[in-house]
Amino acid sequence: MKHNISAITLILILLTSMACQRTALVKQTGAIQRPNFLFILVDDLGYKDLGYAGSKYYESPNIDALSNRSMIFTQAYACSRVCSPSRASIMTGQFTARHGITDWIGAATGEAWRALNRQDKMLPAAYVTALPSSATTLPEAMKANGYTTFFAGKWHLGGEGSLPEDHGFDFNVGGWDKGSPVGGYFSPFENPKLKDQYDGENLSMRLARETASFFNEHQNTPFFAFLSFYAVHGPIQTTQEKWKKYRDKAVANGYAEQGFAMEQKLPIRQTQDNPVYAGLVESLDDAVGIVLDQLKTLGLDKNTIVIFTSDNGGVSSGDAFSTSNLPLRGGKGYQWEAGIREPFLIHVPWNASNGATSDIPVTGADLFPTILDFAGIPLLPDSHKDGLSLKPIIEGKRTKAFQRNLIWHYPHYGNQGGDPASIIRSGDWKLILIHEDMHTELYNLKKDPLESVDLSHTNHQISQELLANLMSYLESVNAVFPEPDPAFDPEKREAYEISVREKLLPRLEAERKAMLSENYQPNENWWKSKVTRD
User: Fold this and answer.
1) What CATH number is associated with residue 184?
2) Confidence grade of residue 418 (pLDDT, cut at 50, 70, 90)
3) Which backbone phi and psi does 308 adopt, to 5 degrees?
4) Structural domain includes residue 160
5) What single-letter DSSP state applies at residue 225?
6) How far apart are CA 410 and CA 418, in angstroms?
7) Which of 53, 138, 234, 529 could bridge 320 with an S-S bond, Cβ 3.0-4.6 Å?
8) Are 203 and 193 in contact (CB under 8 A)?
9) 12 vs 23, 25, 225, CA distance in Å?
10) For strand 36-42 and strand 304-310, is the pairing parallel, antiparallel, or unpaired?
11) How far apart are CA 136 and CA 134, in angstroms?
């Protein structure tokens, strides 16, 4: 009996000690069993568009400060080079070929592509046009486990029947089927999910205030807030004051005579000296500051995990030709690194690794299981089939699970000059399969992050192994592919390319210099911003 009492006493002492340690940890770190989550998703933000990432032109003090308190993933990827597929991957934890949303929703496919008169060799593949109702989404999983779920901003994953409130969000502010701010960045917004308050109100600031208000109203219950900015998607707009600040900065820095060069199909921006885009980035950063400050004001910052990333690369070609992603190659819409490599921060308030970096390749599909893991919710491997929890990495543990293949599938052309292609990354190797002629490109990203030397012909065995693994995955998920266009005319294609070089390139240079002119005025009221109170 004496031995039994001693054993019981010892167990009680151990349990009491563990409880005291946990209580001390809670007091020390502010962590509780159920953390809150703030997910900040930016639209079209480039890998080099922030101060912490190396930009000497754009200013982002609030995001830079967040990076100092976060784990910075230096080889982090969006799951697609354009928006809707990438967003669907975040919501489902699946690569694009699996969930089927392989292009931005609204893009033309098949013979309808010819109407754009781009004279391409192939007809883009069909794709799923709304987030499938059969998919278990991240917000649905959070809601089912007691979290209040909130969405603000850009959705672009379907219209009626497939809006945020149809996929697990309790609240939806501003999310509908459109992928860009229809009314621009200053009110009236022309958004049926976002009521106008006063003319000239800044869209990014409004979304931030709505999110901050949600924090205030739900501070006593665990929440999952998804702040999805429309910024920095085109049309790029800013105030006259911010334009002047960055125009003067570009002049003081001494801007280059030529700002563009030809990529394979379209001109691509070589310089970060667009004062309008810089103002848009600063407004985004101001808005991020609002939500982070509100968390601190309410005392929620010690128990709120903050995730910050973008849905695809910066727009260096096509659309607004806004930014440069150099030294990485390409940009939004391209199959190279600048099309998919992203800013990627995860701030866990009580974690000792804050401020550290990780060079492990990760993707947006990993965020679904990561959030579940930190929330103490059992993982759903049958749902987030292509994602892995990043919690072990953040906690300083390396795991063999991340020795995996990452897959991208984009059987489309898009608006930015990229090719229909599929990609596999395995370790330091990246193989690109170009569907027009089925040729491959192979790059060693550790030695050649600029993707300047194609090694496919000198590393034939590696190329073949990667290609086999890529095709095996695509076949396993019934991926769809583009088809050759029987109406393709090489002479018309050549004429189109000549027009791009001789007309579009000079026009872009003229527009760039006009923005840098001291007399620049886009319109009378600067995109409706003249009455703003921000």
Assistant:
1) 3.40.720.10
2) very high
3) -135, 125
4) yes
5) E
6) 10
7) 234
8) no
9) 16, 20, 40
10) parallel
11) 7
User: Which pLDDT tens digit goes with each residue over 286-331?
Assistant: 999 999 999 999 999 999 999 999 999 999 999 999 999 999 999 9
* Residue 522 covered by a domain: yes
Examine residue 358 and state whether it is found in any structural domain, yes or no.
yes
Res 2: pLDDT = 38
Q: Can you read off the two tokens belonging to residue 151?
A: 């969405």
- Amino acid of residue 401: A
Q: Are 417 and 268 in contact (CB under 8 A)?
A: yes
- 366-395: burial string, b at 16+ Cβ within 10 Å, e else: bbbbbbbbbbebebbeebbbbbbbbbebbe
**Pair 342, 313: CB distance under 8 Å:** yes
Determine what percent of the chain is predicted with pLDDT higher than 70.
93
How many structural domains is the chain composed of?
1
- Compute the average pLDDT of residues 334-350: 98
Amino acid at 27: K
Helix, coil or strand: residue 80? coil
User: Is 239 part of any domain?
Assistant: yes
E strands, 394-515, in order: 405-410, 421-426, 429-434, 439-444, 483-484
What residues have CB less than 8 Å from 65, skipping those under 6 apart?
A: none
Contact 112, 388 (CB under 8 A): no
Kindly report, residue by residue over 159-187, the tens digit of the pLDDT.
Answer: 999 999 999 999 999 999 999 999 999 99
Q: Are 262 and 501 in contact (CB under 8 A)?
A: yes
- Contact (CB, 8 A) for 137 and 224: no
Query: Rounded to 10 degrees, what is the CA torsion of 369, 371, 374, 378?
Result: -50
Rg for the chain (alpha carbons), in Å?
Answer: 24
Rounded Cα–Cα distance for residues 42 and 63 (Å): 12
| Residues sharing a CB contact under 8 Å with residue 198, sequence separation 6 or more, in sequence order | 187, 531, 533
Which SS3 state, helix, strand or coil, does residue 13 take? helix
Q: Which amino acid is at 146?
A: G
Range of the domain at 248: 32-398+491-531
Q: Which residues contact 218 (CB under 8 A, 6 or more apart)?
A: 148, 150
| Residues ≥6 apart with Cβ < 8 Å to 449 | 327, 328, 337
CA atoms of 468 and 398, how far apart (whole Å): 27
Kindly state the tokens that stand for 439: 């040729």
∠ Cα 365 370 376 (to 5°): 145
CA 291: distance to chain centroid?
19
